[in-house]
Amino acid sequence: MAGRAKKGTRTTRESLTLRFDPKTRRGLEILARKQHRTVSAVVEWAVGAALHHKTEGLMFNFGNPEPEMLMDKVWDVSEPDHLIKLAEACPDLLSYDEAWIWKVLKESSNQTKNSDGSWNMVLIRKDWDLIKEYAAKRTVNLKG
Questions:
Q1: How far apart are CA 144 and CA 36, in angstroms?
Q2: Residue 48's closest CA among 64, 37, 61?
Q3: Span 76-107, pLDDT tens digits
């Protein structure tokens, strides 16, 4: 059966609304026809190419001779795991709210880290909503 995932596999897509000027939209439709793809598939392909671009994308050396894809290094289905991996790899790419969560985690490392220096992910995942709430309150206190 074409187009269906095999039983037991998971393929998840998330929706994203995009706005294009009419000329770009028409160009996407024509490119989709040329490539025998849907417009969504063309956009996904183009974004994938941009992400893998060596200078403008998310390719980093991380001290290695060959660049690696940042998302391969930091992606995780768990929000706290993903944030910690991103913060350790590229803290300058954190959003304002993520930076505050990272600050809270670092400041409470005596409780959020194990004796070997690794993050206590079981505890962090369990208390994730509280950590985010505390970080959000700190940002409000600074703004107010």
A1: 54
A2: 37
A3: 999 999 999 999 999 999 999 999 999 999 99
Tokens 């505890």, residue located = 123
Distance CA 73, CA 79 (A): 14
Of 90, 93, 85, nearest in space to 62 by CA: 90
DSSP H or E segment with residue 9 = none
Q: Which residues have a Cβ under 8 Å from the Cβ of 114 and sit 6 or more positions away?
A: 120
17-36, pLDDT tens digit by residue?
999 999 999 999 999 999 99
d(CA 46, CA 44): 5
How far apart CA 119 and CA 125 sit, in angstroms, is: 11
Domain borders along the chain are 22-51, 72-143
